[in-house]
Amino acid sequence: MDTETQTLLNDQHSKPKQGLSLTNAENGVSFDPSQFQPRVRDRHISYGSINGAVPLPENNRDPEMPGQQAVVFRRLPQGMLSTLSSEFESLDYELCENKIFKEEESKKSPGSITKQNATRWVVVFFIGVCTALIACTIDICVVEMTKIKYGFLKKYIEKCVKENCLYIPYLQWLGISCGFAILASVLVTYGEPVAAGSGIPLVKCYLNGINVHRLHRLKTLFVKAAGVTCSVLGGLAVGKEGPMVHSGAAVAAGLSQGKSTSLGFDFGILKAFRCDQEKRDFVTGGAAAGVAAAFGAPIGSGVLFSLEEGSSFWNQNITWRIFFCSMVSAFTLNVVLSTYHGQLGILAYDGLLNFGKFPDIPFALLELPIFIAMGIIGGLAGALFNQMNYHISVFRRRFILSRWAKVLEVIVVCSVTVSVGFIMIYFVDDCKPLGAKDAVEFPIQMFCEDGQFNAVAAMWLQTPEASVRALFHDQPGTHNPLSVGLFFITYFFLACWTYGLSISSGIFIPALLSGAAWGRLVGLGLYRLTQGAAWADPGKYALIGAASQLGGIARVTLSLAVILIETTGNLSLGLGLMLTLLTAKFVGDFFNAGIYDMNVQLAGLPMLPWSAPPMCHGTQAQYIMSKPVVVLKEVERVSTVISVLEDTRHQGFPVIFEDRFSGSQAKQTSFGVLRGLILRSQLKILLKEKPFCSSPTGSTRPPIPLETFRMYYPRYPAFEDIHFTEEERASYLDLRPYMNPTPYTVPKHASLHRTFQLFRALGLRHLIVTDDNNEVAGMITRKTLARYRARICCGAIDFVELPLGGHGVPP
Amino acid sequence: MDTETQTLLNDQHSKPKQGLSLTNAENGVSFDPSQFQPRVRDRHISYGSINGAVPLPENNRDPEMPGQQAVVFRRLPQGMLSTLSSEFESLDYELCENKIFKEEESKKSPGSITKQNATRWVVVFFIGVCTALIACTIDICVVEMTKIKYGFLKKYIEKCVKENCLYIPYLQWLGISCGFAILASVLVTYGEPVAAGSGIPLVKCYLNGINVHRLHRLKTLFVKAAGVTCSVLGGLAVGKEGPMVHSGAAVAAGLSQGKSTSLGFDFGILKAFRCDQEKRDFVTGGAAAGVAAAFGAPIGSGVLFSLEEGSSFWNQNITWRIFFCSMVSAFTLNVVLSTYHGQLGILAYDGLLNFGKFPDIPFALLELPIFIAMGIIGGLAGALFNQMNYHISVFRRRFILSRWAKVLEVIVVCSVTVSVGFIMIYFVDDCKPLGAKDAVEFPIQMFCEDGQFNAVAAMWLQTPEASVRALFHDQPGTHNPLSVGLFFITYFFLACWTYGLSISSGIFIPALLSGAAWGRLVGLGLYRLTQGAAWADPGKYALIGAASQLGGIARVTLSLAVILIETTGNLSLGLGLMLTLLTAKFVGDFFNAGIYDMNVQLAGLPMLPWSAPPMCHGTQAQYIMSKPVVVLKEVERVSTVISVLEDTRHQGFPVIFEDRFSGSQAKQTSFGVLRGLILRSQLKILLKEKPFCSSPTGSTRPPIPLETFRMYYPRYPAFEDIHFTEEERASYLDLRPYMNPTPYTVPKHASLHRTFQLFRALGLRHLIVTDDNNEVAGMITRKTLARYRARICCGAIDFVELPLGGHGVPP
């Protein structure tokens, strides 16, 4: 190998100088390290940092096309709300086909490939099982504790109605709820802030390629699971479905690695899966398993949700595994829950969330305009919800910063929720006879006559899931329009206030519940108008309303339709549901983004959209790329490597064959002939392992095997702790066996559109911009591309360039 | 512009010579056209043609890694059955961002973008409606004609049983069936051979990026629709669902272009959609609409089928349109069919194929092993089916070549089908009482007593769909195990023989029917064993068997599960179905490929699989690329362009800045500095439009607008018909405004894996291999990549390199 390399080097040296570099005088640059130090320091501010990117020229024109004018991206001022956080690094979904990888590959036999494939299926099986078990635990805890809580309250309310001491159960209710809420909030706020919210936006970002710290830790998983249980028990307007997706993802990330750094053990198995790419595929499966467990809908929702929200590159093989994972998860849940309910082997429990079967209600052509109208209402209400939540989130980010303030806010919200509920129960006299059909778990008489119960109390004194079920299935006469209307208004605003608190909470159920409330109102109106026509079933309209509301808030059309169909077991309404959902999505999208996307944007996460901004074919890569670029030579001085790592925060460095630095850096257009790309993580491991050599022509020792690199994944050594002797600093590091010899590149006159497409389709992390002579001209990363955004609102397109800014806080 | 270019040219000229070219003496190559003529002729045999590809070196080693050995691809001998057809060209899914495109883009306003987007939705709406209308027409024709046919036969059979003249209805049956079969066969064989078969493999190939000729013509659509109606009426073992997918695709391709070349009119609208990329998105929607109409299952099947079988790059925006298209299609079908059946506005008809609602049968844990066992049977039976069909297809390709022979084969198959049916009816006395529950449309008494009917006759004297429905829903006692068993065996072999005939035919229904037959047998056995346990419902097992059989044949797991769930309206069986389908797929895949993939391979279609062959990280692009490469200069002599087009069959030519040809071509490693890529189709249009200039430095006239290029799409002028004067031949053609200035490239030491991934993820047509100096070293096309295949059979991987060969016949 050494002679080979030697020849190559000589070859290149003997070749006459080439390229567009400004000064050809500095040929034959030697390896004098003293030349390096200041240069690297000069290049301190570079791509990835705030000021690195070269601004677009005032009139962003293609010099070769005088008549053409490209889209001008409006530069936004740096502010807290429209800034891309520079905190988040990307994941490496690109396979680094370096020499040590190829060496390992060449030793593999077809048998080992088959074995590895089989292992993937086994791992996926366990991911499904574990996700379902966690879901079961949460579900059983919530069900049992709710029974105790509301049973206790019912006893005291019944007693106190007679004895006129209603303040006692009110205080008890307040106390119990706030207790759980505080627990939920403390767990998240002091334990693991990344576990706040539904987790779906973060999982989306992870699958998009953003490295969200601590997202998949064991602690996060625990906080998420325990936190959501407490939130639901606290009586807050939250669901437990969103967090299940995050839990599934965390389970997948943990199980697929065969080790736990938190617990400090390593089974030594599944080493081959210790890379971002493999992990991502498992996480996709885990998220699907989470959805499947939450909704008991393995087919559509599990797989579709993962696809609609998650991955960008559709591969049949991965899909089958996702599918299998969802299936196993749904099945395990089914078995455990049916056993728990004493019906072993009957497999009738279809998920955490089961809205009960709808009878086959036919629907008529006549109803389609009503569905569309409801879609419009849902879209408008959803847009309003998102806009209000946006402003609340902005307020939170500005003023609620300390931990105790966050916990305090949760207490306030919880108290308001309980108080509103209590006031409504107290003042609204909506008495219904105790029927055999409507299975209210805790019918409370309040001021009603004997044999009757207070319908409003029934809505508040149960889990939100049960309330949704009630609105879907109760007989037409059960609910008073006034009380349903009041309930909708209060719950809508409560849900909006609650989402984004420092607790683990989902938005699915609150959205469905408020939608079901106004949907039922519509249904009740139609029922009266038509004097009880068969099609004007209030329950059906509650379902349509629920779909419409959730569609308007989350804008997850396809998978949502399937989830609702699967959870209600009703296929005949499919068309109606879809029509409503599509309408709600269109109407909502006219005003603002979905709630998840809004969360992502608020947190400054550099998530890449599905496609490049429109009309950006005229914007060239050379105008958006970051430069100057910090480059390394194929065989580099150790001291240079150390100072590069110390002085920059870049995650990838192009490896060049020779240097062509002129005096003035700003005017420099080329940084050397591209030979490869090396990552910061690889350099850190190399510095730790020290495979140094004394000769600047390269090492003759066999390179460090890939095995060693995997050992460190995903927490790389902090190189500040490594000490180097003077001798080591003066020696060389041969990067050639470790660098990616064929990184993806774009020519510098490529359009933003093409650059974006390449980057997105392949899930890249670094894209090197080269000039006509294959010399490094600049660098494009996720943050570069995420900055250029087309915001479509109210029919107009706003082209903005976001500034890169300080510390982002996860949503 | 001109001066810019000039400066650039001078710049490049003054730069010292660079690169690895063997002779540096030939600097300053002038534009003397006489140098070109012989050179181009020399390069006659090149990439794209049979012998162009440079063979892999004997021991395909990476010269830089002496220890490493890459996978050796076994070269297959050229033969009819394992040859990649060189007939099929690729589609251009890559956007050509040339100057004229950018000029057009820069004139667009945000409003025009919105308008174009809205137009897409409108077009998609009409695609859905039209596809559904075609489906309705086929359905109504089949239903009505079947009624007449079997009503007529029933009358004569009933009469002749008494009068002992059964040969008369037999001959009538034979006559009617063969009449339709001949019509079906003549239509396809003499009318449009590409309409043969189910069309799903061809649509898959189209979406994969292969330009299948005449696939989307109006004539093809007509032959397909009329042909499948005749095939079904001919009583052959075919379904009408597969052809619906093809019809939908054809409708989409037609409608989205706003013109019909066949009918010779051009509405002048939708011009912006006249490119392969836009057309593909519409075709995906059309195929989904076809599935949705065929199965009445818009959610899962429409969208999922398109995704599972079709597209490779998942984009949310396209998915929503696909979803909408399926929805519109399913809805239109519903409205039309419910109107036709006199129940306007009730929307109860769920698709062409409706297997009737299953009651909610719970299933028990106990049954899961049975489901897995049935999955194994289905997988084995499916593998057997595919293997037999493969050998039949090979036989057909060898010996049944003339048109009349194809028609004759159809007649033979039809006669055998009718005869077998008649013999079974005659000899098997399976008499059942005429119940009110089992709605047999044409109960035939035969030799049964009064009040009874012949159950075997009922199976044969109806459409296959009705037979499937009967097996799913008939009471446990309805079918005699012996007759069902006999029916399965005969039908299985008949279906295998029928698929691949020169008629328009689907495989879904025959597979489901034979599966339902053996599934029901299993169910009957269990029913007897358990003495009529509630779970041992023969209908349920018929469904599982049907799924298993189809899963074993087509290996379409995910969408199939959803289709069956949607068509039977049964969600509770979802888990069982999925388990069975996955098992069947795994077992089947162990032995051979799915029937669609087998069809594709037999036809030599260069379809790219989902991922690169395993273990090919060591195989470098430079070993598989085609070279020498025919290149053109930025401003090229017209005579040279003409001779290049005349002498080669290549579809794309790299445009280079300067030439570096040495004496011996075989040793040449570089073909000039890459500047762009121009397509044959573009050159043809340019030669037709003649924007020539007299100066070798380029044209000063404004270039031909993109509008003109669109006008010719997709049938480009035959340049043989264009005449050139001597003056024209001597003038120059400036390619710069038309060429793609940023074609995708790979470095020559990139691995096959990476090359494949880039090519597949972006749907490319040409991938230029460059050396370290950005000079053209070779070319990789779809056919290059499709040649390297890993065939996995019985647990072993067989790495083969397919030869490129003669004329492929579509499956």
From TrEMBL, chains A, B:
<feature type="transmembrane region" description="Helical">
    <location>
        <begin position="121"/>
        <end position="143"/>
    </location>
</feature>
<keyword id="KW-0677">Repeat</keyword>
<feature type="transmembrane region" description="Helical">
    <location>
        <begin position="541"/>
        <end position="564"/>
    </location>
</feature>
<dbReference type="InterPro" id="IPR046342">
    <property type="entry name" value="CBS_dom_sf"/>
</dbReference>
<keyword id="KW-0406">Ion transport</keyword>
<feature type="transmembrane region" description="Helical">
    <location>
        <begin position="287"/>
        <end position="307"/>
    </location>
</feature>
<feature type="transmembrane region" description="Helical">
    <location>
        <begin position="507"/>
        <end position="529"/>
    </location>
</feature>
<keyword id="KW-0813">Transport</keyword>
<keyword id="KW-0812">Transmembrane</keyword>
<dbReference type="InterPro" id="IPR000644">
    <property type="entry name" value="CBS_dom"/>
</dbReference>
<keyword id="KW-0129">CBS domain</keyword>
<feature type="domain" description="CBS">
    <location>
        <begin position="739"/>
        <end position="797"/>
    </location>
</feature>
<feature type="transmembrane region" description="Helical">
    <location>
        <begin position="482"/>
        <end position="500"/>
    </location>
</feature>
<dbReference type="GO" id="GO:0062158">
    <property type="term" value="F:chloride:proton antiporter activity"/>
</dbReference>
<dbReference type="Pfam" id="PF00654">
    <property type="entry name" value="Voltage_CLC"/>
</dbReference>
<dbReference type="GO" id="GO:0005254">
    <property type="term" value="F:chloride channel activity"/>
</dbReference>
<feature type="transmembrane region" description="Helical">
    <location>
        <begin position="407"/>
        <end position="428"/>
    </location>
</feature>
<feature type="compositionally biased region" description="Polar residues">
    <location>
        <begin position="20"/>
        <end position="35"/>
    </location>
</feature>
<feature type="transmembrane region" description="Helical">
    <location>
        <begin position="361"/>
        <end position="386"/>
    </location>
</feature>
<feature type="transmembrane region" description="Helical">
    <location>
        <begin position="164"/>
        <end position="188"/>
    </location>
</feature>
<keyword id="KW-1133">Transmembrane helix</keyword>
<dbReference type="Pfam" id="PF00571">
    <property type="entry name" value="CBS"/>
</dbReference>
<feature type="transmembrane region" description="Helical">
    <location>
        <begin position="319"/>
        <end position="341"/>
    </location>
</feature>
<dbReference type="GO" id="GO:0005765">
    <property type="term" value="C:lysosomal membrane"/>
</dbReference>
<dbReference type="GO" id="GO:0034707">
    <property type="term" value="C:chloride channel complex"/>
</dbReference>
<dbReference type="InterPro" id="IPR051280">
    <property type="entry name" value="Cl-channel/antiporter"/>
</dbReference>
<keyword id="KW-0472">Membrane</keyword>
<feature type="compositionally biased region" description="Polar residues">
    <location>
        <begin position="1"/>
        <end position="11"/>
    </location>
</feature>
<protein>
    <recommendedName>
        <fullName>Chloride channel protein</fullName>
    </recommendedName>
</protein>
<dbReference type="InterPro" id="IPR014743">
    <property type="entry name" value="Cl-channel_core"/>
</dbReference>
<dbReference type="GO" id="GO:1902476">
    <property type="term" value="P:chloride transmembrane transport"/>
</dbReference>
<dbReference type="GO" id="GO:0030321">
    <property type="term" value="P:transepithelial chloride transport"/>
</dbReference>
<feature type="transmembrane region" description="Helical">
    <location>
        <begin position="571"/>
        <end position="591"/>
    </location>
</feature>
<comment type="similarity">
    <text>Belongs to the chloride channel (TC 2.A.49) family.</text>
</comment>
<dbReference type="InterPro" id="IPR001807">
    <property type="entry name" value="ClC"/>
</dbReference>
<keyword id="KW-0868">Chloride</keyword>
<feature type="region of interest" description="Disordered">
    <location>
        <begin position="1"/>
        <end position="35"/>
    </location>
</feature>
